[in-house]
Predict the 3D structure of the following.
Amino acid sequence: MSYKKTRLIPGKHQTEEIQKEFIEKMLEEVEEAKSSEGRHVVLNFDPMHQTHNNENGYMWQKKGKGGTKQMKSNTGRRRINILGAIDMVTLDIVPFVTEENCHKETIKVFLSEVQKTYFKAKRITIFLDNARYQRNYEVQEYAKELGITLEFMPPYSPNLCLIERLWKFFKKKVIKNTYHETFEQFEEFILYFFSEENWKKMKSELETLLTLNFEII
């Protein structure tokens, strides 16, 4: 036995059979994309809403009274919404950073960015969750106009969302135990995280983290 923190899982997660069927379907799309030489692109999409504030994280500290390191925090009154889609073959990212809330119009703008990025592709498939603004009728019709196929994941299945791992990695690099004094500095750091220069530096870490192995819960 060991004394450790419990782990939260969705209370309404899908059956093992449903999860396995979805994984099989998703991996079939990925394999097809691998052999298509760029004609078919498979993406995993999910927005992240990040408040301008520091988040506590584990770090080595001195033992005893007064050994705990103090970290500065912000008001947390402003936040940045990051809409991201990761290519499940190349691990390239399509990021869209905005202060606007996520709604149908924001999603439509993001879909346009995806289409511009992969304008040479004959097929674009995006796996995404069931958020209301993503299942919106106008969003689905607009995706069809752009030639994008939206494949909705089983409800309550964050374990099947590849980009969720990227968001945890993002927090570790940008948010945990890190103080950004002004909102402008915070935004600048986020934009640098997604820059082509930085993405190349992180590629080896991402290849280890973003493998196509999915846990069944």
